[in-house]
Design brief:
By secondary structure, the protein is of the alpha+beta class. It contains 18 helices and 13 strands.
């Protein structure tokens, strides 16, 4: 007569690959339950390798950026920065009459446009807390090249900074005077905080949710569980049970006999409220990067709320970063003679704060009638229209009912009743 050890050996011969637990005659075939649906249906080795390859913890910035909410928050800020116009001004107005202005605004190097360069620098800074670039002299003059963050190690001292860069030509040690850089917020020292590390707890939670959801749907939405029975099974019954489990692994539906029952030991995604948890974690990520709720969530709002959220996004997510970049450009890239002339770098945020078309036209009329802006400032600065080459068009104090204005704008004669 077979003893418990023989019974366990027989059960182990087929239960181990399938992860089945049998209880028969008052003893268990294995000391602890193992999931039947353990994510290895269609090729055990393949699925096990893929499951182990899935990141469950954010140990690098690249892993953190793979989370959809993180990438959205970082990329929307970076793309917004890249879309802004970079201008240079002094106390008398725009100053784009020096070569460096064109380089920084339109062509930092021969492989990147201004929009591409500033979006890449902003993405690095928003994700990692710092971004470095190296000004060099190329064949066409000054060039500015962003340093690859994967090859860059910044060494912040109490009052010092050294950057170690592993370029393709070897290790380099760069001093602050050789670089252009800007950083994010710090907690009292020079070393900036690393945003993705600050949000690491929420990011890890989000990764765990994604891995769990992938496993659930990979198992054809079947919960993990065990099969149990109070009866003793013979070899023939063992074989049929093994075939049923193998059929389950291939996506089929097994038929159990002799009182064998399947008992789920893990809840479904619905029971775990995975969808609600993902929404909550997504909103939590938006708080780290100050993204308004309506921009990162799936619930819509009315036009007034959306416009207000856009203003909040500009005021609290974009403006602090653009201010840091503007001062970094002015202090670390402009030569002393240009700074002595009062020239400063400026990103134009006005286009994102004007609201819808009706609001823009209303504000333009108010600015002109109050003599705050001239006709040319409204035309070229707000609407991108061609300038009117007349002196009165540059004077914000020009009378609104000026005959000269009427003649120039319409190309016709002044009305008889307006002639003096």
């Amino acid at each position: 007569m077979a003893g418990p050890d023989d019974y366990r050996r027989r059960a182990g011969g087929y239960s181990t690959p399938a992860g089945v637990v049998l209880t028969g005659g008052g003893f268990a075939a294995r000391p602890a339950p193992t999931n039947v649906t353990d994510g290895r249906f269609f090729g055990d080795d393949t699925w096990s390798g893929l499951l182990n390859a899935l990141p469950v913890e954010a140990n690098t910035a690249e892993t953190a950026a793979r989370v959809a909410a993180v990438f959205f928050c970082v990329s929307i800020i970076a793309e917004a920065i890249g879309s802004l116009g970079l201008e240079f001004k002094d106390n008398h107005g725009p100053r784009n009459d020096f070569p460096l202005a064109n380089v920084l605004a339109y062509e930092p190097n021969h492989l990147q446009t201004g929009a591409e360069f500033w979006a890449a620098m902003a993405f690095t800074a928003v994700l990692r807390g710092e971004a470095f670039a190296e000004p060099t002299v190329g064949y066409d003059g000054l060039e500015v090249w962003a340093l690859n963050p994967l090859r860059t190690v910044s060494e912040w001292g109490e009052r010092s900074l050294v950057v170690h860069y592993a370029s393709e030509r070897g290790q380099r040690r760069l001093m602050p005077q050789e670089l252009f850089w800007f950083t994010g917020i710090a907690d009292g020292g020079l070393r900036p905080l690393v945003p993705w590390k600050q949000a690491k707890g929420s990011i890890d939670f989000q990764l765990a949710l994604e891995v769990g959801a992938r496993a659930f749907f990979r198992n054809d939405r079947r919960p993990a569980g065990v099969v149990t029975t109070d009866q003793k099974l013979n070899d023939e019954s063992h074989g049929r049970l093994k075939e049923g489990v193998e059929r389950w692994k291939r996506g089929g539906i097994p038929v159990f006999e002799q009182g064998v029952k399947y008992q789920a030991i893990s809840g479904s995604n619905k029971d775990s409220e995975v969808v609600d948890l993902i929404k909550q974690r997504t909103l939590e990520m938006g708080r780290y990067w100050r993204i308004p709720r309506t921009m990162i969530g799936d619930e819509g709002g009315n036009a007034g709320n959306n416009e207000q959220d856009t203003r909040s996004f500009v005021n609290w997510a974009l403006r602090p970063l653009t201010r840091r970049i503007e001062q970094a450009i002015t202090v670390r890239l402009l030569p002393p003679d240009l700074r002595a002339q009062g020239i400063r770098a400026k990103f134009n945020l006005d286009s994102m704060l004007r609201g819808d078309a009706a609001t823009q036209w209303k504000n333009a009329v108010l600015a002109r009638t109050a003599s705050i802006m001239s006709v040319n400032e409204v035309r070229s600065g707000w609407f991108g229209l061609a300038r009117i080459e007349e002196e009165w068009a540059d004077d914000p104090r020009s009378a609104l009912n000026s005959n000269r204005a009427a003649d120039t704008a319409t190309g016709g004669e002044t009305a008889p009743q307006d002639k003096v």
